TrEMBL record:
InterPro entries: At4g22758-like (IPR040358), DUF7054 (IPR055482). Residues 48-131 form the DUF7054 domain. This is DUF7054 domain-containing protein. Pfam families: DUF7054. It comes from the Eukaryota. The lineage of its organism: Eukaryota, Viridiplantae, Streptophyta, Embryophyta, Tracheophyta. Coiled coil: none annotated.
Amino acid sequence: MAVSQPSNQVNVWKKPMRVKRVKKWGLLRSLDVFHAFFKKKKEVADLMLISINIHESTGHLLSCPLRFLVRVDDTVFTVIQTALRSYARQGRLPVLGNNSDDFFLYCANSDFIALSPVVPIGRTGGRNFLLYKKK
């Protein structure tokens, strides 16, 4: 038999219809600023997962390639910098250095032609790349 509540009692299990948000200079405020910024721009970052094999690398965990997310409009130069930073953080051997001008990036799926450093990575048409050090 179900027990009904009198109409003058408040149901404690129901959440209030509207919660008033107090904006403070903390996490809540920063999240509001973050959401307001992206709602104004109405942009969604187009990301792609790429993998980069490094020439003459002994590697780490059986020479697996570097994998990370990049934006589609990032340049090849930026991708090389990110790959070198990721390679150094993982402690892979041999040590390559951090000068990204000393490296070429090739698309593994197309002709063996070095990519221009100013071309966006999304326009290359591939997701698998090779990183070679200049001689």
